Amino acid sequence: MSINIVTALAVKSFDAPDRKRCPEKAEFDLVSVNDYSVARLILDPGWRWSQCLKSFDGTGLCQHHHLGFCVSGVMEVLSSDGLRSTIQANDTYAIPPGHDEWVVGPESFVAVEFLGAASLGRRGSQGAHAKI
What is the per-residue pLDDT across 13-24, written as a single tens digit (0 to 9) for each? Predict the structure, then answer.
């Protein structure tokens, strides 16, 4: 088993991200702190992975691993095996590959993600993890 450790102090702000990606109805602000990538997702009302990113990502379902914390808004997730879940403000979540997801209601979904963050919004990433 590998051990992840933090070896140096690092502070970054989403106000000045290392990279910004803006696919349809979405904004992904990405920062790297040491060897870790963290993303802030802002998904606008009406955003749905299968409508906004499916052709961009090149897969039938979202293949990203997600580990995050919802700051505001509501999102529904439907897994390939039919499980459905709602994520809302103050929820932490883990979503395995093979799902569709969409924003519910009139408010943007805002979240911070810690796993798979660098590959979000990267054309043709097909869920592959990468450095920013």
Answer: 999 999 999 888
Q: Are 84 and 76 in contact (CB under 8 A)?
A: yes
Domain ranges (residues) in the chain: 20-119
Domain covering 20-119, topology: Jelly Rolls (2.60.120)
| H or E element, residue 51 | helix 49-52
**Position 104 pLDDT exceeds 90:** yes
Whole-number pLDDT of residue 126 = 46
Task: Say which amino acid occupies 10.
Answer: A
C-alpha distance across the termini of the chain, in Å: 24
Q: What pTM was estimated for this model as a whole? A: 0.86
Q: Note the residue count of the chain.
A: 132
Which amino acid, one-letter code, is at 63? Q
